[in-house]
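Give me structure tokens for this 99-residue protein.
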Amino acid sequence: MSLENVSVVRIYLREEGDILNRVLKLLKGHVRGVTALRGIAGIGEHGDLHTSALIDLSLELPLIVEFFEEAEKAEGLIKMLNELDGIHHILSWSATVKS
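Here you go.
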């Protein structure tokens, strides 16, 4: 068992348009794995609560896309992701992964 230093990257999106597909296309083949999570509720930039209730058919629910990769490679991908419209926040932090 060996340990490897990586960067974890988390991308915050809204469930609108084709932004999720564009992000996944950009990451495809460049990272070891990607996880997309759909939020059941979120508070938007204007303070409005968006939920997944059937009455609220809003497509503004939060989406989170997360991956990990070597730090240099992750930084390059973050630069490309920053060029896409529709991404609201990108966070990254160091971590250790067992490989």
